[in-house]
Structure formats: structure tokens, C-alpha cells
Design brief:
The complex is a heterodimer of chains A (391) and B (392). Chain A is of the alpha+beta class and 391 residues long. Chain A is built from twelve helices and ten strands. Chain B folds into three domains: 82 residues, no CATH class; 114 residues, Butyryl-CoA Dehydrogenase, subunit A, domain 2; 149 residues, Up-down Bundle (Butyryl-CoA Dehydrogenase, subunit A, domain 3), CATH 1.20.140.10. In chain B, strand 9 and strand 10 form a beta hairpin. Classes of the chains: A alpha+beta (391), B alpha+beta (392).
Chain lengths: 391, 392
């Protein structure tokens, strides 16, 4: 039993850490977020050159052949720097679905262009009514000749505005909440009938609502089995949740370190406020929250990597932990920074906002706790029901 | 990163499990739970472990330890705890023995260690005093040199199982010079000595395990002094961190959660199983998820120790989280027990009473309050982390 990283993983982590340290200070990030696109394309090329975009892909497509641990070490460092370039949307979600469900031709045509940085992707799965229920899909796909016609609307699509290619979930059969009958389609963002309305989220993400009006795609756009898209989504969501957990962990570590530093330098009543026991114990509590969150992310990444039977249950538990610990840590960070914690000028609030958005991505703590309970103690939960439906 | 067990570890797990299943009989289990039969039964169990060579896994091999890897130790503890088998009584095997083999002289090692291994002496711990709790170094029980004896006067308190004990290891004041930590000595005292009086303290679990121990002109041979006079604080402190590893008792809490779950599947609330109540599921999963994380925190500390690191302030984290979770599990058990949660010790058969766990739930919950107080209260542990980890 060991918790050490391999030499390759250490190099990967150090390489991302160095980029964040040298090229991604808070003001630089702020300027990127304020730019038209909200991302820096030059950074994206750097990511490609450093091989980061190739990490989870197989060697046959020019990838690094990395696993969940490799992804974890990178995401943790991205978290520390609040990196807004769309690694999660393009590599983890979009690339993940291609890995999970793509046929040889689809993988060969899309994965190399993710790896060389020429294509940005997004996964359009949320709808106005869907909240955290990925199986709640009203967007329709109807067979037409040897292709399909898509109609519907996807909302808050992460990286939706900048993406060149989208993967869209649409219902080809079944009722609105069924897990079966969901299909995945590869849709060029400039396809006829695709209309995008772009807006910003509080963590700097540029998202888009994507309206699909009689969008015609060929048979080769269908990713995976017709009506069987949920299995692929589910697999990618497991990986994505662990990646988000790692990113959150990086943020929590930064918040604790910055808060601790602040209380050692900020003086009131003639002494550093960190000398007050009331504050010390609160920081011990946030330290413990961080360690517990870290343990849970490690546990989840190991379960995923080993393909453990209880991986799903562990990942649900991890997402719960990430919300609980994350909220505890950022609320304390703001409180202990006093008035300064309220300012946009300080990075504390920005870390907090990213943690909140992570919480709201792919199911919040309550959603996952209900799923965890259903798996552990029985009883109904939509996700659990979906899985057995799909199986 | 690799958290899977090796084939050797898995074989070891089998071996340990098989031994426990065979050696820890239902009869032993029942007698250990009965306060009147407890001492004899637990000693009998420890002798079985001794015969197997497994009574003191943490000791150095030359003194009777097993030489297991940290992973093996972890497996042994998990298998034990998962079966609801109590840990060995810590005062001799885990607390005083490491002080003796680390700081004691050869004569002391030969005299005391074999008898501890064989459970021939029952030990108790004399640290806290009526006036010295968290501020342990303020202790006042004094030992004055008189020829080749110390004369001890004062009182110790919260002394668990002093009523059973043959020996007590004490921190006593031998000097008032300089810092209060400096004049403390580590003394082994025969509980059968003249001048010792044990006063029972009934605790809120309605049982008697705690005591006050009075010392009135108790004569203790100088040969019973560990190491140097006035250096006792250093010896005690060096071993505190060891005391705190394993204190998380993850396996014990896992077992507790399993029991709560099984009981909640049996209990019915207005026609609905308690386990299906969303509020109950929320409470239960809150605890279980924290525990899943703590299990890995425990393993992370363990692997650090395996690669040469000493258990430092991380053991404070394990103590705090571990005891919080233990108490949370005890709270859940009380909730499950509902109207039976207050049953006091009785000889009435559970069939007649109508319930078979309310009494145990009450006892665990009430005595369980001690966990966040003893071994350095959780607030003291937070002070330790603030200083040692956060640098505050």
C-alpha cells in the first residue's frame, strides 16, 4: 500500500505547477477572464506542446495513455491556479465521450485534433428543466434518411461558446426521464440550425445556450449505440467527478494556505490575529476538512483506477465531501479575511466561486448523498434507477 | 498510488480472521460484556493472544513483538474490530511497556515485560489529578527521596480499572525547580503497597470503571524509577503520539455503522422501516461518508509511518475525527433504540424486556462522552495541530 506518485505523475504535476506559478498569476487570469473569449488560446497551444491535452487518450491516437491518477494530479494544479482554459470541457468530457463511445473513425478524426490543440469541444447535456438529472432529456433526435434531425435546446454548456465541436445528448426513443433512448451526436458548432447564445458564470467560465433547429447530421455523427448513450455518459461522469474533486482539492489547499498566511500577518489589538485561540481552532477545523477531502479524493481515484466494485458509491461520497469541506473552507476563508474577504480584488472570493460552481456541476452534495444512500441502504433514487434501467 | 493488498497481505488477512473466529468464542464474548466477569475474561483472551504470539504486535521483536509491517498491523486491527473483539487492555501492553522497553534499565525490562506479555499483572495509569487535567504538567503528587525509597503523597484521578490493578505507572513531582515540566519523574508503583486507597467513581453510564487513587506516605523503591529523576515528562510525551495512533478506531466505527444499519432495517416506524426514512438515511450517510474519508486519512498516516515518518500531529487529527465519528455512531444507535434507549443494567431477559440493544446503546453513548475528553481532550489536540502543523 502506498500513496506515492510515479515519476511520470510527479513530472506532470510539476509541469502544470510551474505553468501556474510562472504564467498564470492572479492578474493574468483576471485579464484572460475579462477578454472577449474568456480564455487564452496561446495557453491552449502551450498545453498541447507540453502534452497535457494528450494525457487520457490511448497511445494509438497519439495520447499519453494516462489514467485517473494522472488526471487528478493535473486537475489539482489547475485548481490551484483557477485555470479557465477549457481542459475539463474539452479533454475530460468531450474527449472522454469520444474515448468511451467513439468508433475507430470518430476517434481517429477527433482525438488527434484535441491533442494538437486545434479543436475545442463541449458536452451539451443540460436542459432548462433538467437540474442534475442527466437522463432528463427532451431534445429529440429523429431518424431521417441515413442520418438524424435534432431539435431542442441545451443550456449552460461549459465552453459552449468557444467549442468547435459539440457532443449533444438527444432522445431518440423513450420518455423524457428514461435512461434508455438517449443518443449522443457529434455536432459541428457551425452546423446549420445551431444557434448559440453565450454568457458568463461567476467562476469565469464562458457558457452557452445551444438551440438546435432541424439540425441535420449524418449517420456517422451518432456516437455509440442508438439509444444507448447513457452508459457512455455514466462512465465519463465517474471520471469527470473525480477530476472535479481533484480540482476542488487544489482550491481548498490554496484557500487554507492563504488564510493561514493572512492570520499570521494581519494584526489587531497589537498582535497577529492568528494568535487568538478562537481563530486557531477554526483553522484547525478547516485543515481537518482539507485532509478529509483529500482522503476522499484519493479513495475515489484509487477505486476508479482499480475498477473497484464500490467505486460508484465512493465517488458519490467524494462529491458530498467536496461540497461539505469546500463550503466549510471557503466560508471560513472569507470570514477570517474579514472585510478583505468581501473584495473582488482578493483571490479568495474567486476560489470560493469556483468551488461553488464545481458543487453545481454533475450533481451537488445532496444529489450525491441521496444516490449514496440509495446504493447503501436501498430505496429509490433517480440515478440509481437510471443505471439499472440502462443495464 | 496503490491501495490494494498484496497476495501475502490477503493470505495474512485469512490467517488472522480464521484465528479470531476460532479463538474468540461466544462464551468469551458474553463474559467480557458482563462487568462482573470482565477482568477474568479479558485476561483469558489476552493469554490466548500471547500463546499465539500476537498479544503485542507493536513491540520490538526482541521483547515479544510480531515484526509485522504497518499494513499487517492494520489488517490485524481491522479484522479484530470488525468482529467486535475488544482491543487488549492498553495500560500495560500499549502504554507502560513502550516506556519500559524504551527508557527502562535491563533489570526493569526483565522484571516487568514478560509479566505484561503474559497478562500476569494488571496495570493502570496515574497521570491526571484532581487539579491537573488538560494542564497535566501542573501535577502535584510528590515523591520525596528517603534512603533507597521514594515516599509518595497525593492523588490521581480518572484511573480506569484501578480496582483491578496490580501496578500503576505514575507521573510524580520530584522537583519544583524551573519549568513545571522539568521536575516530573516516571514511577512504577505496586498497587498492593501500604498507603494506597482506591475510591470508586460511578460514571454517567451507571458503571464503575473510573477511580480516584490516594497515596498516603507510600514507599516506592528507587529501583522502580524509569530513566532519570525529573525527566519523566519527556518519556511520557515521547509515547503520547503512539498512544494516539489507532485511536481513530475506524474498524470499530465501521462495525458500529453496520450494526446501526441492521437494527434500522429491523425497526419499523408507523409501518415504514426506519432505514427507509430519508432523514435517517441522511444522518447515517453523513457519518458513513466522514468515516470513509477517515479510513483513508488513517491509511495515509500509516503509509507515512511505514516509510519512516513518525506519527506526528497527524495523530491528533485521527484522534479528533475518530472520536467525533465514534460519538456520532453512538448517537445513531440511541436514535434507533428510541423508547428503549434509557434501560439501566438489569438481569431481565431481553425477551421479557422486549429489546436487546437499548441498554448497550445507552452505555456506549454515555461512556462514549469520555472519548473526546481523554488522551488529551480534543481541544488540546486542536492546540497541538495549531502549533505543530499550522505554525500558529
Amino acid at each position: 500500500m502506498n500513496f506515492d506518485f510515479s515519476e511520470e505523475q510527479t513530472m506532470l504535476r510539476d509541469s502544470v505547477a510551474r505553468f501556474v506559478q510562472d504564467d498564470y498569476d492572479f492578474d493574468t487570469r483576471r485579464a484572460i477572464v475579462a477578454s472577449d473569449e474568456g480564455i487564452n488560446r496561446q495557453n491552449w497551444q502551450t498545453f498541447a506542446e507540453l502534452g497535457w491535452l494528450s494525457v487520457p487518450f490511448g497511445e494509438d491516437h497519439g495520447g499519453f495513455g494516462g489514467g485517473p491518477v494522472d488526471l487528478m494530479v493535473m486537475m489539482e494544479e489547475f485548481g490551484k491556479g483557477l485555470v479557465v482554459e477549457p481542459y475539463f470541457a474539452t479533454v475530460v468530457l468531450f474527449g472522454g465521450l469520444l474515448r468511451a463511445a467513439g468508433n475507430e473513425a470518430q476517434q481517429a478524426s477527433h482525438i488527434p485534433s484535441i491533442i494538437d490543440g486545434s479543436v475545442l469541444g463541449a458536452f451539451a447535456y443540460l436542459e432548462r428543466q433538467s437540474r442534475y438529472e442527466i437522463t432528463d432529456v427532451a431534445t429529440r433526435a429523429v431518424a431521417d434518411g441515413d442520418g438524424f434531425v435534432l431539435n431542442g435546446e441545451k443550456v449552460a454548456v461549459a465552453n459552449g461558446a468557444n467549442a468547435d465541436v459539440l457532443i449533444v445528448s438527444a432522445r431518440s426513443s423513450g420518455e423524457q426521464y428514461d435512461a434508455s433512448g438517449i443518443s449522443l451526436f457529434i455536432v459541428p458548432a457551425d452546423a446549420e440550425g445551431v444557434e448559440r447564445v453565450s454568457y458568463r458564470m461567476m467562476d469565469g467560465q464562458v457558457v452557452a445556450n445551444v438551440v438546435l433547429r432541424d439540425v441535420r447530421v449524418g449517420a456517422d455523427a451518432l456516437l455509440g449505440e442508438l439509444g444507448g448513450g447513457y452508459a457512455a455518459i455514466d462512465r465519463v461522469v465517474q471520471e469527470a467527478l473525480v477530476a472535479l474533486g481533484a480540482e476542488a482539492l487544489g482550491i481548498m489547499g490554496q484557500l487554507n494556505a492563504k488564510t493561514l498566511e493572512y492570520t499570521k500577518t494581519r494584526e489587531q489589538f497589537g498582535v497577529a490575529i492568528g494568535s487568538f485561540q478562537a481563530l486557531q481552532h477554526r483553522m484547525v477545523d478547516t485543515f481537518m476538512s482539507y485532509e478529509q477531502a483529500k482522503s476522499m479524493v484519493y479513495r475515489a481515484v484509487c477505486a476508479l483506477e482499480n475498477g473497484d466494485d464500490d467505486a460508484r458509491r465512493v465517488i458519490h461520497a467524494m462529491k458530498v465531501m467536496i461540497e461539505n469541506c469546500g463550503r466549510h473552507i471557503f466560508e471560513e476563508a472569507i470570514q477570517l479575511h474579514g472585510g478583505m474577504g468581501l473584495t473582488d480584488e482578493l483571490d479568495i472570493g474567486h476560489y470560493a466561486k469556483r468551488l461553488m460552481m464545481i458543487n453545481a456541476t454533475l450533481g451537488d452534495g445532496d444529489y450525491h448523498q441521496a444516490a449514496f444512500s440509495a446504493l447503501s441502504y436501498g430505496g429509490g433514487h433517480s440515478t440509481v434507477a437510471s443505471i439499472s434501467d440502462a443495464a | 498510488m496503490d491501495t490494494s493488498f498484496s497476495p501475502e497481505d490477503l493470505a495474512f488477512k485469512e490467517e488472522v480472521g480464521a484465528f479470531f473466529d476460532e479463538a474468540f468464542t461466544d462464551d468469551l464474548r458474553a463474559r467480557i460484556k458482563d462487568p462482573k466477569a470482565y477482568k477474568e475474561a479479558i485476561v483469558e483472551w489476552q493469554k490466548k493472544l500471547y500463546e499465539k504470539g500476537w498479544v503485542a504486535p507493536n513491540w520490538p521483536v526482541e521483547h515479544g513483538g510480531t515484526g509485522w509491517t504497518p499494513t499487517q498491523n492494520y489488517i490485524f486491527d481491522s479484522e479484530r474490530s470488525a468482529r467486535g473483539i475488544p482491543n487488549t487492555v492498553p495500560f500495560g501492553l500499549s502504554m507502560v511497556a513502550p516506556v519500559i522497553y524504551t527508557f527502562g534499565n535491563d533489570e526493569q525490562k526483565q522484571r516487568f515485560l514478560p509479566r505484561i506479555l503474559k497478562s500476569e499483572d494488571w496495570w493502570c495509569q496515574g497521570y491526571s489529578e484532581p487539579g491537573s487535567g488538560s494542564d497535566l504538567a501542573s501535577l502535584k503528587t510528590k515523591a520525596e527521596l528517603d534512603g533507597d525509597h521514594y515516599v509518595v503523597n497525593g492523588a490521581k484521578i480518572w484511573t480506569t480499572y484501578a480496582q483491578h490493578a496490580d501496578w500503576i505507572f505514575c507521573l510524580v513531582r520530584t522537583s519544583n525547580e524551573g519549568k513545571k515540566q522539568n521536575g516530573i519523574s516516571f514511577l512504577l508503583i505496586d498497587m498492593h503497597s501500604e498507603g494506597i486507597k482506591v475510591n470508586p467513581i460511578e460514571s454517567i453510564d451507571n458503571h464503575h470503571s473510573l477511580n480516584e487513587v490516594e497515596f498516603n506516605n507510600v514507599r516506592v523503591p528507587v529501583a522502580n524509577l524509569i530513566g532519570e529523576q525529573d525527566k519523566g515528562w519527556t518519556y511520557a510525551k515521547a509515547l503520547l503520539a503512539h498512544e494516539r495512533t489507532g485511536i481513530a478506531d475506524v474498524a470499530g466505527s465501521k462495525r458500529g455503522i453496520r450494526e446501526v444499519r441492521q437494527l434500522a432495517e429491523r425497526e419499523v416506524n408507523g409501518g415504514k422501516r426506519l432505514i427507509d426514512d430519508p432523514l435517517f438515511q441522511k444522518r447515517l450517510s453523513d457519518v458513513e461518508i466522514e468515516l470513509m474519508a477517515l479510513e483513508f486519512t488513517d491509511l495515509r498516516v500509516l503509509s507515512q509511518v511505514a516509510t519512516g515518518g513518525a506519527p506526528g500531529a497527524e495523530s491528533s487529527l485521527l484522534k479528533i475525527k475518530g472520536t467525533e465519528i465514534q460519538q456520532a455512531v453512538q448517537t445513531l444507535a440511541m436514535m434507533v433504540a428510541a423508547h428503549y434507549q434509557g434501560v439501566l443494567p438489569t438481569d431481565i431477559d431481553s425477551d421479557v424486556l422486549g429489546n436487546d440493544f437499548g441498554m448497550a446503546a445507552r452505555r456506549s453513548y454515555m461512556y462514549g462522552r469520555a472519548a473526546t475528553v481523554y488522551g488529551g481532550s480534543n481541544e488540546i489536540q486542536k492546540n497541538i495541530i495549531a502549533k505543530a502543523v499550522l505554525g500558529l
